[in-house]
Design brief:
With 460 residues, this protein is α/β, with parallel strands linked by helices. Helix 3 links the parallel strand 2 and strand 3. Residues 1-21 have low confidence and may be disordered. Strands 8-9-7-6-5-4-3-2-10 form a nine-stranded mixed beta sheet. 39% of the residues lie in helices and 18% in strands.
């Protein structure tokens, strides 16, 4: 789950979707506080590029993609059910009625069996991720069936990461036993904050003490990596509350941690609650950089290791394979209603309507609803995103590998350095703390600049 505030969506057009005259927005303002003033907005939610939508022959194209090369693979399985809908959440989730959710799990198993017969499924599976929604609301026995189907039908790498995303109220001792018996070796839990008052105001079900106790139980078993999400900029949250959340998380002994910026959706429940006076306004974008820097400095002082712009590991058990895998658009099969995937640079997506998915599953039809063809600069963009997501860019190698003239970057890199966002060293761009906070902007800028240079060099 990635969050950012005041985001402009990409327009969905084939690349390059910005002309060279549009790149002025990539220049940062030079202020005394780059964390708050370098830019006025986040350009996108995730850096990258858009392809052209395939309007016809979606089934034929999907079948062709499933017959592609046997490259390392990821599996993403979407569980679109939630016990409740939190105010800040922008993901759709139906209430998990027992009959419906079990029927859905059976349909997932059918789709997994269908996909396992494809050529691409023979590649080694590096990561399996059950996301949602709230996958932990599934009965542990159904989860055992799902994982058994995956292990029987796919070739899991010896170090395959098997992640179950979930809500802490699902992690009773008995259910934890079932989740572990199913074979999960990584749990990602959306705690968001340990502050009971803020949790209640946002619609979280468990109090702080309950959340801490269940996390301690899960960690004490030492059977799997335990990861939690914390959100900063929440209504009613101060920097001291955010630091207390970090203190509690570190004291529990978890293996990994995400610090996410609050995402405010223009028509979401959170903004409605703010406008009606039921809840105070969240921190504005200009103030959220301070939270990011506090978290970054605190965790590094505690000897945590940044694995990406928002993700940190405390132990070697946490590897965070899935998120960078998906962001750099590696081969990944998306399973279930609302799932998305990537094959050979093509992005595909399934509509989130559960009933539609169930009817299709009965007929053995699992083609996606939308597929986008990759632009010519797909490999270039993936190369950039994979590096900038970790806070650096080897732009000398980028130039050599893709034939992109380095001079196209010079005025922007110099500007970013003067604005306090990057350091430049021997062909490398290194993000500062402020640069990491604005990392999605820097990444998107490099992608668009490099793509424009690529097409200009080819006379296109």
């Amino acid at each position: 789950m990635e969050n950012s505030q005041n985001v402009k969506p990409q327009d969905g057009l084939p690349f390059p979707f910005q002309t060279l005259s549009d790149t002025k927005r990539f220049f940062a303002r030079k202020t005394t506080d780059p964390l708050s003033g370098a830019f006025s907005e986040k350009f996108v939610i995730h850096a990258g590029q858009s392809g052209s939508i395939v309007k016809d022959l979606t089934l034929d194209l999907f079948s062709s993609l499933l017959s592609g090369d046997q490259k390392p693979l990821g599996l993403y399985i979407h569980i679109p059910f939630c016990m409740n809908h939190c105010l800040y959440c922008g993901f759709a989730g139906q209430f998990p009625k027992a009959d419906l959710i079990n029927h859905y799990a059976d349909a997932l198993i059918s789709e997994l069996i269908y996909l396992s017969s494809s050529k691409v499924a023979k590649g080694p599976v590096r990561t399996v991720y059950l996301g949602g929604g709230t996958p932990s609301c599934l009965d542990p026995e159904k989860l055992k069936e799902l994982i058994a189907t995956i292990k029987n039908g796919f070739h899991l790498a010896n170090d395959c990461e098997l992640t179950l995303e979930g809500a802490i109220h699902d992690f009773t001792p008995e259910r934890i036993d079932g989740f572990l018996e199913a074979g999960f070796n990584r749990f990602s839990l959306g705690i968001q904050t340990f502050d009971t008052g803020i949790r209640k105001s946002l619609g979280r079900r468990s109090k702080s003490a309950e959340a801490i106790g269940r996390l301690e139980d899960l960690v004490s078993r030492s059977m799997a990596a335990v990861i939690i999400d914390l959100i900063y900029g929440l209504p009613g949250q101060s920097c001291s509350i955010f630091l207390r959340d970090l203190d509690i998380a570190c004291g529990i002994g978890i293996d990994g941690l995400d610090t996410y910026q609050l995402n405010v959706f223009s028509k979401g429940e959170l903004i409605k609650a703010v406008e009606s006076g039921k809840i105070e306004a969240p921190a504005p974008l200009a103030a959220q950089g301070r939270y990011y820097a506090l978290g970054y400095d605190y965790l590094l002082a505690k000897h945590w290791k940044p694995l990406s712009l928002s993700h940190y590991s405390r132990t070697s058990r946490e590897r965070n394979i899935y998120n960078p895998w998906a962001k750099s658009r590696q081969n990944c099969l998306g399973v279930g209603a609302g799932a998305g995937g990537f094959l050979a640079g093509h992005a595909y997506f399934k509509l989130p309507q559960v009933e539609k998915y169930l009817k299709s599953a009965v007929q053995g039809e699992f083609a996606p609803d939308f597929i986008t063809r990759p632009p010519k600069t797909e490999e270039l963009a993936s190369y950039i995103v994979a590096q900038t997501e970790e806070g650096y860019l080897d732009f000398a190698d980028l130039s050599k590998r893709f034939g992109v003239d380095q001079s196209i970057f010079t005025p922007f890199f110099d500007n970013w350095k003067e604005a306090g966002l990057v350091e430049i060293y021997d062909g490398w761009l290194l993000f500062t703390v402020a640069g990491r906070f604005w990392g999605v902007n820097l990444s998107q800028a490099v992608v668009e600049l490099a793509a424009n240079a690529f097409f200009e060099a080819k006379g296109e």
